[in-house]
Amino acid sequence: MTPGDENLSQALSGRQDPFRSLETLAKSFAATAERHDREASLPVANLKALHRAGFLALTAPQTFGGAGRGLEDAVRVVGALGRAEPATGLITAMQYISLASLAESRCSPTLKRETLGAASDQGALLNALRVEPDLGTPWRGGLPATILRRTEDGWRLSGRKIYSTGAGALTWGVVWARTDEEPPRVGNVLVPLAATGVRIHETWDHLGLRASGSHDVIFDDVRVPEDHAADLRSPEEWAAAPDAIGAVWVSVLLAALYDGVARAAQAWTIGFLRTRAPSNLGAPLASLPLPRHAVGENEAQLAIHRRLLLSVGRDWDRDRSLNATEAGQIKVAVTEGAVAVVERALRLTGNHGLSRANPLERHHRDVLCGRIHSPQGDMVFMNAGGMALAEND
Questions:
Q1: φ and ψ of 199, to 5 deg
Q2: Between β-strands 198-201 and 186-192, what pairing exists: parallel, antiparallel or unpaired?
Q3: Which positions fall inside the Acyl-CoA dehydrogenase C-terminal domain (predicted)?
Q4: What does the angle CA 283 – CA 284 – CA 288 come to, to the nearest 5 degrees?
Q5: Do residues 162 and 132 lie in contact, with contact meaning Cβ atoms separated by under 8 Å?
Q6: N or C: which end of the chain has fewer CB within 10 A?
Q7: Are residues 115 and 154 in the same domain?
Q8: 146 in a structural domain
Q9: What CA–CA distance (Å, rounded) separates 363 from 346?
């Protein structure tokens, strides 16, 4: 245990401010963010530091050694990490979603203790592995091609998942699969990624979030104990009663992540405008009306994001007065706002902003990923529009 860990451990169990050390951690992560981006290297050291400080188990229940914190605190952490090094923030966001969902799942107390306890004690990482080459994202419906076949002692799992964030660092995969029964059932299956038959195919070579290690994970006849597939239901049952925690938390925490990226872009742009003094002007660009106006627009956008994200986090923690449809709308609004902030910064800084010598071009590449992350805008608006029109019939 490093100096200060005892204090932070107490803080994360509710006795002190848990975010006292977050700023220090974030600064150290920001210092290596450019290198991880260029190398497309997984920020393993960052994840270990978060574990040592107690942050990886922030949303695990206290009964399993976690901090028992809710969505509002998760928003604060993911936002800070998004500003510092967004791949670390994305992996952490997926961890928080998985821990919160697993705690309320139909898994046995023994399995919860094994997984949630390992997150608290050992820094074990979890993520939902859902997207497939043919299906795409299950947010849009359809049955997975990943198959669970019944055996005498449980199940055997075969399939391929793509865009598996943090794949090389994950301890557990929460795998979306269907059974080989007629009719099939679908559900989440807990799979230790060190199991025989699991392998990672390093396919991730993306424009943005290059350090997230979102490679393919292949399952080749992997043994799955009976209790690791504890929540198999018909597709109709899942459609009628989806994972509310997962749906809401994904949208809100992704919004917090990309808001963090936009804040990093705004901070660099302000520094640039304060120090860049063209010879024909004889004063910093910050003295001109146009940059002041544009920076002010960004400040207003970011202030709205902050108030919105923290308030919805509090609403959820208080009485869960937030549904998946509303959360999706918030995700789209904030991510589109974040893209607008970064693009406005690029217009202000010109070639300087697009140079790889400066971080703004990296922030631009990263923030664009917000449009691709589910739930995507077209689906959110179609769902909202359909509901509104149905209500007015």
A1: -145, 155
A2: unpaired
A3: 254-374
A4: 90
A5: yes
A6: C
A7: no
A8: yes
A9: 10
Helices (H) and strands (E) in the chain, counts: 13, 8
* Residue 289: CB atoms within 10 Å: 7
Q: Are residues 248 and 387 in the same domain?
A: yes
Verify that 142 and 84 share a domain, yes or no: no
For 19-67, the pLDDT digits (tens) are 778 999 999 999 999 999 999 999 999 999 999 999 999 999 999 999 9
Q: What is the pLDDT of residues 360-379, one digit of tens each?
A: 999 999 999 999 998 888 88
The domain boundary, picked from 200, 234, 268, lies at 234
pTM for this entry: 0.92
Burial 136-151 (b: 16+ CB within 10 A, else e): ebbbeeeebebbbeee
Tokens standing for 362?
């990296």
DSSP string, 193-224: TTSTTEEEE-----SS-GGG--EEEEEEEEEE
Claim to verify: residue 259 and residue 171 sit in the same structural domain: no
Write out the residue range of the structural domain in which residue 162 sits.
Answer: 128-234
Q: Please report whether residue 134 resides in a domain.
A: yes
Q: Structural domain tally of the chain?
A: 3
Query: Per the structure block, which two tokens stand in for 124?
Result: 């074990």
Encoded amino acid at 32, one letter:
T
d(CA 193, CA 180): 22
**Pairwise CA distance, residues 1 & 75, whole Å:** 26
CATH number for position 181: 2.40.110.10
> Does the CA dihedral 292-293-298-299 come out positive or negative?
positive
Q: Do 250 and 295 reside in the same domain of the chain?
A: yes
